[in-house]
Structure to design on (676 residues):
């Protein structure tokens, strides 16, 4: 009965059914599961408590015959006065000329609309004659199509509820309902459409939030499991003792967070499945060391490793730091576009003959003429630059290496576990001990002179500074003009004492390299730059980061920029020059001054911007939940995730309690879907 077409309900004919079909409602069950997207709460509060610009509901007596004024044929304005708690309130209704006949002097009416506390005026969006019905104070609002109205839909749902309400099947096992005190599905569906109270609604919503997250997590995790089992990989039997000895030989003790993610990676290496893992960690949290240890483990298993980075400068830096870690235990080579001729040929031969253990370079290094004897592990720094294409290239060479992606852009956990459903995610969420926290200040533009003076003092002390230019989005050209202007200004200000450099996107890469080199050798003390300096550069001696127009940057980008300093022994400073106009803008600046924790910032950013914006609209690929909200309900998401793990691990889907869920998952194709 519940799965019958809606036309089997009394009062739903072909025409109505057609409109409902456009809303994806075909069966009675569909109709019952079509939940309101919001609720209007008609709660009558004393006038004195009404907030300006809020949507409010008031109840009163009409004092004068409403006066109507027409503008053209359709537009109109109806005005009358209302007595509410002995106060005279003005009511304005637009384009509802028909209401003039319904509303008379002396009538009691209930009005809902936008409140103007200064004028004591309400702009009415909904009204009904008579006193406010206190039992009906929570009104569901549905999203509608065609000629379907809210009222009509509600009536249809009421009919469906009456006919089939008792047939609504339970999906969740008893155990979870009890553990989390969730209402039965029958009860919860009823409450979603006809809430008896706020509390009841809250619990019904809680139920569906959990249900949605649990089903989603089961789907994602089962798919991931299938993918893993299907992915041919190699079980790298690494030498535990050698790896431990290497860890012991490091000049510092690994942090707990580093040890934890390292363990996860080593388990992946040893497993016969292909690793597909994302390693997140703030700038300076120590990802590179972890990468080095993983590469080393692979080498003890007789494999080769590759480390891919976005730029040549970074590749060179990594070669240096890895050589420092490994000494001569390991044979490392650098392979970039600039390595040419005989040297290049030699490297290619060595790779093919397994005379090289680790190759570091830009992403060209896994393409074209590069062939490995036995590639076991590929590590990709800055994950977004490695795509499907590169994977295919590897596969075409008959290689199935484990792949580890590293990113310094912290992605809030809530998003990471949903958006990267098919990847394992690890996070280094702790900084090595003894780091000096960067001090962050938010100042106005009129402080610029003082900032320049401050820079001069630090430079006297042997330190260096970045000055990031005002950001002009409209045009690249203006951007550079501004950079050049600021550069000239600083040069004039500092004269001969302090060398100022300039960096922007229009410089050739040779010029950029030269500027960076001069800066890292302290031939330049102040570097004026556009945001090109954002990725990866490491100049530990730079201790000041000044960011112009900071309010125009997102939190993530500000955090990346700030990460350019605080890399050495000295106390570092980040100075945000900003005069934000909006509350959100001010909030951003406050958050920046309050925390240097990238994960915390990312969570805050998510709250300020919403998940769609966080990833950029197009590539969001985030699931559409009907009731749940990934940001606000993240605790439920975590719970559901853990529960799903437990269910899969223990094979509970095969037990009787889980049959409804199993049937749902089968329906969704989780067990039959083609894998990429
Ligand atoms: P990331 O790649 O995450 O930005 P790095 O691996 O480059 O960070 O580490 C930043 C600096 O901290 C390096 O100089 C590194 O040697 C050092 N470092 C890494 N781990 C630790 C640790 N556990 N204790 C102290 N210093 C560490
Ligand atoms: Mg790094």
């Amino acid at each position: 009965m519940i799965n019958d077409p809606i036309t089997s309900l009394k009062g739903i004919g072909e025409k109505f059914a057609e409109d409902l079909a456009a809303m994806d409602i075909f069966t009675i069950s569909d109709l019952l599961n079509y939940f309101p997207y919001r609720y209007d709460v008609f709660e009558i509060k004393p006038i004195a408590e009404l907030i300006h610009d809020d949507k409010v509901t008031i109840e009163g007596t009409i004092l004068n015959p409403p006066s109507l004024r027409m503008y053209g044929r359709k537009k109109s304005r109806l005005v009358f006065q209302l007595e509410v708690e002995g106060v005279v309130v003005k009511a304005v209704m637009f384009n509802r000329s028909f209401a003039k006949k319904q509303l008379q002097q002396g009538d009691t009416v209930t009005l809902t609309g936008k409140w103007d506390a200064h004028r004591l005026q309400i702009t009415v969006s909904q009204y009904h004659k008579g006193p406010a019905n206190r039992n009906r104070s929570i009104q569901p609002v549905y999203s509608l199509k065609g000629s379907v109205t809210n009222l009509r839909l509600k009536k249809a749902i009421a009919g469906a509820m009456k006919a089939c309400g008792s047939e609504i099947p339970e999906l969740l096992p008893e155990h979870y309902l009890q553990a989390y005190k969730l209402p039965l599905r029958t009860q919860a569906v009823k409450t979603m459409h006809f809430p008896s109270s706020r509390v009841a609604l809250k619990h019904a919503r809680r139920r569906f939030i959990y249900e949605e997250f649990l089903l989603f997590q089961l789907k994602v995790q089962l798919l991931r499991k299938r993918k893993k089992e299907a992915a041919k990989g190699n079980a790298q039997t690494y030498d535990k003792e050698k790896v431990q000895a290497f860890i012991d030989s490091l000049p510092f003790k690994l942090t707990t967070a580093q040890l934890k993610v390292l363990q996860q990676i080593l388990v992946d290496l040893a497993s016969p499945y292909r690793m597909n893992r994302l390693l997140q960690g703030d700038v300076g949290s120590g990802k590179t060391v972890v990468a080095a240890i993983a590469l080393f483990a692979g080498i003890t298993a007789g494999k080769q490793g590759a480390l891919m980075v976005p730029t040549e400068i970074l590749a060179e830096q990594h070669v240096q730091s890895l050589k420092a870690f490994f000494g001569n235990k390991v044979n490392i080579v650098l392979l970039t576009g600039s390595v040419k001729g005989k040297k290049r040929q030699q490297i290619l031969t060595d790779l093919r003959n397994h005379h090289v253990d680790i190759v570091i370079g830009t992403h060209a290094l896994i393409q074209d003429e590069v062939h490995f004897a036995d590639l076991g592990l590929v590590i990709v720094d800055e994950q977004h630059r490695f795509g499907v294409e590169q994977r295919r290239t590897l596969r075409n060479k008959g290689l199935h290496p484990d792949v580890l992606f590293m990113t310094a852009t912290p992605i809030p956990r809530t998003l990471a576990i949903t958006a990267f459903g098919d990847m394992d995610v690890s996070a280094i969420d702790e900084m090595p001990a003894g780091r000096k926290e960067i001090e962050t200040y938010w100042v106005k533009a009129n402080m610029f002179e003082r900032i320049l003076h401050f820079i001069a003092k630090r430079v006297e002390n042997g330190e260096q500074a970045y000055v990031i230019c005002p950001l002009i989005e409209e045009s690249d050209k203006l951007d550079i003009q501004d950079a050049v202007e600021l550069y000239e200004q600083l040069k004039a200000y500092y004269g001969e004492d302090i060398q100022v450099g300039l960096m922007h996107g229009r410089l050739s890469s040779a010029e950029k390299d030269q500027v960076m080199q001069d800066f890292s050798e302290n031939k330049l003390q102040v570097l004026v730059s556009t945001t090109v300096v954002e990725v990866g550069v490491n100049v530990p001696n730079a201790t000041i980061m000044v960011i112009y127009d900071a309010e125009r940057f997102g939190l993530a980008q500000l955090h990346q920029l700030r990460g350019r300093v605080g890399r050495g022994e000295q106390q570092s400073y980040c100075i945000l020059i900003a005069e934000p106009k909006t509350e959100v803008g001010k909030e951003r600046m406050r958050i920046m001054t309050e925390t240097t924790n990238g994960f915390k910032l990312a969570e805050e950013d998510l709250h300020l911007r919403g998940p769609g914006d966080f990833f950029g609209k197009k590539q969001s690929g985030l699931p559409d939940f009907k009731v749940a909200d990934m940001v606000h309900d993240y605790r439920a998401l975590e719970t559901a995730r853990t529960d799903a793990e437990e269910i899969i691990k223990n094979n509970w889907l095969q037990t009787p309690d889980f049959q409804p869920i199993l049937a749902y998952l089968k329906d969704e194709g989780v067990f039959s879907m083609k894998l990429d």
About this structure: The longest helix spans residues 198-230. The first strand starts at residue 38 and ends at 41. Residues 287-288 surround magnesium ion (ligand 2) (CB under 6 Å).
